Amino acid sequence: MGTEVAGEEIEVSGIVQGVGFRPFVYRLARRLDLVGDVRNAGDRVIIRIAGLASARDAFAAALADEAPVLARVEQMMRRPAQVPDGPFRIMESAAGTVSVGVVPDVATCPACRAEIADPKARRFRYAFTNCTDCGPRFSIVTGLPYDRPATTMAGFPMCPACRAEYEDPTDRRFHAQPIACPDCGPKLWLEGDDATGADPIERAAALLRTGHILAIKGIGGFHIACDATNADAVALLRARKHRPTKPLAVMADMATAHPLCVLTPEEEAALAHPSAPILLLSLKPGAPLAPGIAPGQRHLGVMLPYTPLHHLLLAAVGRPLVMTSGNRSSEPQIFRDDEARERLAGIVDAFLMHDRPIARRLDDSVARHVAGRLRIMRRGRGLAPMPLTLPADFADAPPVLALGGELKSALCLTHGAKALLSHHLGDLDEPATGDAFETALADYAALFAHKPAAVAVDLHPDYRATRLGEDMPATRGLPLERVQHHHAHMAAAMAEAGWRRADGPVVGIALDGLGLGEDGTAWGAEILVCDYRTSRRVARLSPIPLAGGDAASREPWRVLLAHLDRALGRSAVDGDPLLAALFAAKPLLTLRAMMDKGLNVPPASSAGRLFDAVAALLGLAPDRLSHEGEAAMALEAAAQEDAPPYPFAFHAEAIPIEIDPAPLFKALVDDLHAGRPAPAMAAAFHAGLAEAFTGAAARVAKSEGLTAVALSGGVFQNARLLEETVRRLESFGLAPLVPGDVPANDGGLAFGQAVVAAARLMG
Ligand SMILES: [Zn+2]
Ligand SMILES: [Zn+2]
Known about the structure:
The chain is α/β, with parallel strands linked by helices. The protein has 24 helices and 31 strands.
């Protein structure tokens, strides 16, 4: 035991492990001439320092201000303590007490970017360069503690030069588990191309520049890439991938992105964030891109290069690249080499491969800056598995496992006031996704040593996630909490906003596709009054029959017919040449006979289907949608300028109050006859929907004495609708609770289910 001197102990909590925090503390202490040590303890970091009081204060201030990009200092407690004398040291974590958190994958940092561009550097043009501040993390983790043998880098023994950097606390690669160099690390090669001997990146770039389509192995899976300025290449990619219209994401560096899109300072910061999401940006008119990238859209999904491989490739191509998920139509993204060779063979001309295995599929995250902040639409690579913090009065909640919904599936595991919302797993009606879901469940449970006390599922008995919750071994014998779809959406918005259990109920506006309601019918345009445990429906959009059930969700003209028949009457619809033309080749008689007999015409009050119907009426929707949300996106893209809201009627004589769209359809048909342009009609529709639901919510808030309104459901990914809704609520003096880190779509459902179940268990 050495001598000790009087000093202080600082306990830091937040995201401070696995993010280069201890080496940062080490360098800071040395810089300020402090003695002492730093160590991990549980999920916190404990620092002991002694030295000048002014230097200790400067140290404490810098801990939060200068922390590594990935770290988040949430709490810092300082107290007097005896401190070991001698040069500042990093203490090894005691075996068995290590709980180093798993952190998300991180985009290449500026120092590593400079290094791969430096001809004198050891890692010049090395595609797998990384350091403590950047590189793969969650995508390579195979077990805990997070250490090289428990990653897919286990098969790459470090060379002496890398080992020396890894062991040097002053080096920026101190304990960087994926550390690698050209001598000891993963290698790149090109398959399916005859030119041998050439540099694989130069050769891949040459193929892309000449209109070829490539599969590129990345961090969390394979991308399919082509030159985004080449119309023929984009058309060929769409034809081979059977993806006719869904917008394609583009990868570009910041300088190339500027001529493509309007970029606010907030959007620039979001693009350049270490999570490097695909960001939806406003397309500039005349942007130098192939027209088939985002047909009919006014927005473009853009991401910056986030690995050294991407940086090198983009620099060599000199043009923006289409970077879309490597899969066939709606199957999950491929992340294994053999599967890529087999499944993508008919789509791509060559494969840019590497030999670092991907431990789990992680799709690119997708986000959009709306109503003052970034809104995550898909949580994937770069964001998962960053924990979310629940309101303070969930600290004593029992651990819950929530299994989410059917589409945009994700899991959620809670532990006290922390929630782990998994990465995007895909749509569970795809058989391949179902298998991935079960793998992910075992994966998360093991990685985070999670033992749930209860399981939360949707009310829908036919969701694959619900059935798994009922009878798979991992959840057998555990209490099952069934949570109504839109109650879960509202709870997710409340919890992310920090709404405490003790804060009581809120009004909730759910504008969504379809979710099973408590009365057994499909809901999706409702006003609820809910707290975390219970919810009751106080208003709804008037239901319409979904002629043909699921077919009505794919064919917008079916819901349009139902709305028009209801609003105008059949004879008026038939007698109107404009409307008759819309349904000219459609089996109207059959559909109406089904409605009369009540055969396969489940009633639904759905905002998603209302968007479909209006888009169809304005000629903005195809007969058959090629992807979910296609019609709604087209309607949002069409809406321009401001227009006075279209009217809705209210029937308040019974609960739930009916919000009736009949006047909306009458006005739309009148405007259609008057030749009013579609952009103004689309704008008036958005304004009308926002006015109708905020007006009803304000009445409910007043009669119930409530002050906050939660907004969620997939339809709120519509920027125009969300901004209009928030503005109107604020003008009524109501506080909108809107999700941002949690997707408003079904990707956020598990998070909401988990907090509802936790709240019910706490009583
Ligand atoms: Zn780096
Ligand atoms: Zn090496």
